[in-house]
Amino acid sequence: MLELRPNCEWCDKDLPPDADDARICTYECTYCAKCVADVLKDVCPTCGGNFVPRPIRPKTAYHDTPKLGLGHQPVATKRHYSRWTTEQVERMAALLKDVAAKDR
């Protein structure tokens, strides 16, 4: 199950489960769309991959089994923060921002 992290790992903006501006990489690093565009240049500073919109988990379970939805599988509460410095992020973005995600 996808971990729905509660914040942007760069600017610490709250990203509730229905945030339409949450972005994730293949390792679930989570950032807001503004940081992905303006700071990260669509390059994950951890893995070098790209970002996609994070899915929105339905609020309600629409079937009896398995028990799905936010009521049964809530979002994560632990906040995550990027371990990378501004210089490291800029270096990674400069290296990969013009390389198609499939070619990284």
Describe this structure in words.
This protein has 104 residues and is of the alpha+beta class. Helix content is 16%, strand content 8%. The protein has one domain. It contains 2 helices and 3 strands; from the N terminus they run E-E-H-E-H. The longest helix has 11 residues, at 86-96. It is elongated and about 50 Å long.
The CA-CA distance between the termini, in Å, is 26 Å
Q: Look at the structure and give the mean pLDDT.
A: 95
Number of helices: 2
Helical coverage, percent range: 10-25%
What is the number of strand segments? 3
Regions with little confidence, pLDDT below 50 for 5+ residues:
none
The gross shape turns out to be elongated
| Count of separate structural domains | 1
Gyration radius from CA atoms, angstroms: 15 Å
- Assess the beta-strand content as a share of residues: 5-15%
- Briefly note the structural class of the backbone: alpha+beta
Q: What series of H and E elements makes up the topology?
A: EEHEH
Widest sheet: strand ordering: 2-1-3
Biggest sheet character: 3 strands, antiparallel
Tag the structure with descriptive keywords:
elongated, single chain, three-stranded antiparallel β-sheet, 3 strands, 2 helices, alpha+beta, 104 residues
